[in-house]
Design a protein that fits this description.
The complex is a heterotrimer of chains A (247), B (143) and C (117). Chain A is an alpha+beta fold. Chain A contains nine helices and seven strands. In chain A, a hairpin with a 2-residue loop joins strand 6 and strand 7. In chain B, strands 1-2 form a two-stranded antiparallel sheet. In chain B, a hairpin with a 2-residue loop joins strand 1 and strand 2. Classes of the chains: A alpha+beta (247), B mainly alpha (143), C mainly alpha (117). Chains in contact: A-B, A-C, B-C. Chains B and C meet through helix 1, helix 2, helix 3 and helix 4 of B and helix 1, helix 2, helix 3 and helix 4 of C.
């Protein structure tokens, strides 16, 4: 008898159900299978109505984030083998509204991301004739870690402040703002500071640090936010003691 | 699944999404050990405040003369207070350890273009703490 | 002038208070709350300690030791109440209690240390 493993998957069909429930599936247990493989097996062979997001299946697109045994994970990067023969609980990403089964509504994150202006802001765009922007390896190193974010929202599912405060910008948005603040080509730090040095921005963060723990790309959003707080504090004192240097 | 007897979820309008929002429990911090550790770290601030209260009482008794100070010392020997202060010391040390381990993350210290590893900064903090503690103890003991 | 957010300043107080608490409190607590009462180390006499405390630099040191950690507590406890008990709607009460408590403690410390005879 081939080895199998139980998957306990959240099911929710808004037209039928008042609240999400759990459905158990038995899927083949293969050493090299990830949770996403198991979900696709369910959809192909057992219940075609199971709904979930996925795309690249290799940990770079950020689509397949779900809660696996209570931890935010990329299902394409989470091996069944790590759960031995115990039932694996698969739930939609925490702290987001559930649309259907394992699919969550992410427009809150998208709005917050756009709000921090995650692009190069220049006072004057350099004309093409002047050539490209040059950047030394050290300048790249200053922001590179924060640029690795794949917008998978696992950090939001780990952040209790985001769960408790609907206005909180969240780890990824702030880390990405910091990625551009630290980019030598960018001139928008002051603009972003005005937006994020608010309670819904960096000051809502209490450095729980879970966001960094779950990030699959080692972005360290918690570190980004604390560095941002330090910068904001320095700016505050500077503007207090040297108001003439304000722009 | 929780279908209702009419086969339809209550108040569902055709073709309109009805998202399900999970309410975050007041006891969210009990659900994961890492959350619990975070809350303990935050609660350590209460024991820091208790130390200040203790010290203010000590200073007041100190300035009131040897009998008042002797009474304060006697009070400090109370077994319940000692037990409480053992807990206080634990939480104060928890604050110190978590502070030194986390504070380097707030500073991207760069020497000659290379990021100084957080471990090194933390180690520096621990070393400084040991030195400062020895100096303070020496001063207090009248060395 | 645009309304200046006071949060960066409060966070700075929290940070400095945290540093003071982390470096200085353990040894003080260990000596005065455990080592001396339990007799592990002989306590200095009241006269010696008072003479030490009267020194102006020591008074300033004690003031810092008693004031800044209170502001550290105030900020941290305020957020613990927000997130731990979800009572953000009591915002004004919490803020007054926390920072008010820290200011009160600071004033008590200042009074005691100024009047140290």
């Amino acid at each position: 008898m081939a080895a199998t493993i139980q998957l306990e998957v959240t099911r929710y069909s808004p037209e039928r159900d008042a609240a999400p429930g759990v459905q158990s599936f038995e899927v083949p247990y293969r050493e090299d299978w990830v949770v996403l493989d198991a979900l696709n097996y369910i959809k192909d062979k057992l219940d075609g109505s199971l709904t979930f997001r996925w795309s690249c299946r290799m940990g770079i697109c950020g689509s397949c984030g779900m809660m696996v045994n209570g931890e935010p994970k990329l299902t394409c990067a989470t091996f069944l083998a790590d759960y031995a023969r115990e039932p694996v609980r698969v739930e939609p990403l925490k702290y987001f509204p559930v649309v259907r089964d394992l699919v969550i509504e992410m427009s809150d994150f998208m709005r917050k991301l756009v709000r921090v202006k995650p692009w190069i802001i220049r006072e004057q765009e350099k004309p093409l004739s002047e050539g490209e922007y040059l950047q030394t390896p050290d300048q790249l190193d200053a922001y590179k870690q924060f640029s690795m974010c794949i917008n998978c929202m696992l950090c939001y599912a780990a952040c209790p402040v985001y769960g408790l405060d609907p206005l909180f910008s969240g780890p990824a948005a702030i880390a990405l703002a910091q990625r551009y603040n630290l980019d030598s080509r960018d001139q928008g730090a002051a603009e972003r500071m005005k937006l994020l040095s608010q309670h819904e921005g960096i000051w809502g963060c209490t450095f729980v640090g879970e966001c960094t723990e779950v990030c699959p790309k080692h972005v360290d959003p918690a570190g980004a936010i604390q560095q941002y707080k330090l910068t904001a504090a320095k700016e505050w004192f500077k503007s207090l003691l040297m108001p003439w240097s304000a722009k | 699944m929780t279908p209702d007897p009419t086969g339809r979820a209550p108040s569902y309008t055709d073709f309109h999404p009805r998202w399900y929002r999970v309410r975050v429990s007041t006891y969210w911090w009990l659900t994961k050990w890492s959350y619990m550790k975070f809350v303990l770290r935050e609660l350590s601030s209460i024991f820091v405040a208790w130390f200040v209260v203790l010290t203010l009482l000590q200073i007041r008794c100190l300035s009131q003369g040897p009998e008042a100070y002797a009474r304060w010392q006697e009070w400090m020997r109370n077994p319940f207070l000692i037990a409480g202060n053992v807990v206080t010391l634990f939480f104060v040390l928890w604050h110190t350890v978590t502070w030194f381990n986390l504070a380097p993350r707030a500073m991207a210290v760069r020497v000659a273009g290379k990021r100084v590893p957080a471990l090194l900064i933390a180690a520096g903090n621990y070393l400084a703490w040991a030195v400062v503690s020895v100096i303070l103890a020496w001063i207090i003991l009248g060395g | 002038m645009a309304r200046r957010l006071v949060e960066p300043f409060l966070w700075s107080l929290f940070s400095v208070g945290g540093v003071v608490a982390a470096f200085l409190i353990p040894v003080h607590l260990f000596l005065f709350a455990l080592a001396f009462p339990l007799g592990w180390i002989a306590s200095p006499s009241q006269e010696a300690l008072l003479a030490l405390a009267r020194h102006p630099l020591v008074r300033i040191y004690l003031f810092v030791l008693c004031s800044l950690p209170l502001f550290h507590w105030a900020h941290r406890f305020r957020y613990t109440l927000y997130d731990g008990l979800q009572i953000k709607h009591l915002n004004e009460v919490i803020t007054a209690f926390c920072y008010g408590g820290a200011v009160l403690g600071t004033m008590v410390a200042g009074y005691l240390l100024w009047n140290l005879r």
